Fold this protein.
Amino acid sequence: MPKITTTSEFSVTEKRSRFLALAAPVSSLGEAKKIVAKQKKTHHKARHHCWACRFVDEDGRVVEQARDDGEVGRPGMILLEQLRRGDLECAIVVSRYFGGVKLGPAGVGRAFRAAGEGAIAGLNR
């Protein structure tokens, strides 16, 4: 896996909902959870904080985890799939500020995918 050395942020607006993505290097689940906690604190008014992480542990095994935080459309898995496709060792968190218009599972999935792709594109690899 390519070594990530920087963080990257990206935002997308879809029907008045804002999706703020942060991608950052991690080497443990604890580091990933700290990044998620920091994003939750920074964006405390956001309704959902969906995330995924992927890294290689001390034994050389690939560890993956994803969480949807109650959001529809399985956005955690969408983010994890992006990390797998890029063979990346990092965490990505997308915080959603609800804009009053329901997007449905497909619309939510598209918005999370776009936010994730933007954050990943900004990473230094």
In short: The chain has one domain: 8-121. The chain has a mean pLDDT of 92.
